[in-house]
Amino acid sequence: MPDFNLDLLRRLCEAPGISGREDAVREIVLAELRPLVDDLSIDAMGSVIGVKNGSGGPKVAVSAHMDEIGFYVKHIDDSGFLRLYAVGGFDARVLVAQRVIVHTASGDRLHGALQASSIPAFPPTGEPKAPRMDDLYVDLGMNAEDVKAKVEIGNQVTLDRTLVSNGETVMTKTLDDRVGLFVLIEALRKLGDHAAEIVALATVQEEVGLRGAMTAAYATDAEINLAIDITVSWESPGRSPEQWVTRLGHGVGLKVVDMSHISHPRLLRHLRDIADARKIPYQLEVLLHGGTDAAAMQRARGGSVASTLSVPTRNAHTVNEMASIADIQATIDLLAAYLEEAGSRDYRYTVS
Description:
There is one protein chain. The chain is α+β, with helices and mostly antiparallel strands and 352 residues long. The chain folds into two domains: 6-68 and 173-341, Zn peptidases (Aminopeptidase, 3-Layer(aba) Sandwich); 71-159, Elongation Factor Tu (Ef-tu), domain 3 (Beta Barrel). The protein is built from eight helices and 17 strands. The protein has helices spanning 6-14, 23-33, 144-150, 175-190, 211-220, 265-277, 293-298, 325-341, and strands at residues 39-42, 48-52, 59-65, 70-76, 82-87, 99-103, 109-116, 136-139, 156-159, 164-165, 169-172, 197-203, 224-232, 252-257, 282-286, 305-313, 321-324. The strands form three sheets. An eight-stranded mixed beta sheet has the order 1-2-12-3-13-16-14-15, sandwiched between helices. The longest helix has 17 residues, at 325-341. The radius of gyration is 21 Å and the shape is globular. The termini are far apart.
């Protein structure tokens, strides 16, 4: 796709920003949103709030989260090895022998290897023991004195992986949810005439309990809320079709239900009708695990109409998250189209 802004997606994905340390991502978001909105602010928790004025339509908030799963340094032993506190949902089995970056208070980026003390270099015959998070440590390859001089408790640690693309898909460590930020920014860039007041939210600390969305949604008090996030695509060997949830290359995911929220049926119908009318490919999503910012937004104050647009993603919460460029573009197209039409239908329940 010639107009697909791969450079922006790469910069978003490669910026470090675990929950509570979203600073580098926030700077990119602020720079991109500034020419696209009429007002820009940051709340007390660090979420970005951009407002694009409307002309009498409803207030619509669109949220994507800035934070990635990662680690804090919790202990430095006498040999200079680091022990970690996990921030977000990890499967320790996919972390062994990955490279990581320790981000120091002085701005240094120290590259290290993530290893597991429970796995010997040459395992004995038979099934090796599955590692646990408590087994993991970081080896920086430095003497203990130098490690202790540079690293301190609370430094953030991110997985070390760049974004690559074969022209059809992108693969990197942080599509969750930098691709959501990308969709939000690019949809605002694409947006035509609209009546709705649009609130663009780039939230913090989603991976540890939707915390930024709770406060931002309470302050924003929008009538309609949309989250933009990834969803799983489990179309892999060993899984039967009823387990796939979504498929790469089959369009934007329209959330029906997940563990955190049930999409408002009238909003979901509106999104489907717009996609059908504009020939935007989509797939309906029922997710048995996980949730999105929409859950917190839906329940803020007196409640609101809410749903989620999802980018189908393979290998979620690993260093090899993979998504289709066509699906990402479909998500941008549907979000922009919906924001242009928001207010054309009334979703309210009424007493007969």
